[in-house]
């Protein structure tokens, strides 16, 4: 009887191991399918927006609050953590 339980426990461990491998492979596949940020032309547009925003901020035409909000928005669209 003890051998039967050991065999069942072993099979259960093997099933869990296989399930973890399948889950890991699915996560890798999902990550590979995700785009790595905006399209190149969109990235250029957003970087240009940030350049103009930075120049206006340096010239005193944009408040610190507005600069921070817009920078956060632009960086978010670019996929950059701030």
Quickly give the structural class: mainly alpha
Distance, first to last CA:
60 Å
- N-to-C SSE series? HHH
Main sheet specs: none
Tell me the β content.
Answer: under 5%
The gross shape turns out to be rod-shaped
As residue ranges, the low-confidence spans are: none
Alpha carbon gyration radius = 25 Å
Oligomerization category of the chains in this entry: single chain
Discrete helix count: 3
Average the pLDDT over all residues and give the rounded result.
88
Could you give the count of β-strands?
0
**Residues in helices, as a percent range:** over 70%
Explain this structure.
The chain is mainly α and 82 residues long. Helix content is 80%, strand content 0%. The protein is built from 3 helices and no strands. The protein has helices at residues 2-33, 40-58, 64-78. It is rod-shaped. The protein starts with a helix and ends with a helix. 0% of the residues are buried. The model has no long low-confidence stretch (mean pLDDT 88).
Short description:
The chain has 82 residues and is mainly α.
């Amino acid at each position: 009887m003890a051998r039967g339980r050991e065999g069942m426990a072993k099979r259960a461990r093997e099933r869990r191991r296989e399930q973890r491998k399948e889950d890991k492979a699915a996560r890798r596949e999902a990550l590979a399918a995700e785009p790595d940020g905006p399209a190149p032309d969109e990235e250029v547009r957003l970087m240009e927006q940030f350049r103009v925003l930075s120049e206006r901020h340096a010239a005193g035409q944009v408040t610190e609050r507005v600069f921070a909000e817009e920078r956060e928005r632009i960086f978010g669209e670019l996929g950059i953590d701030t």
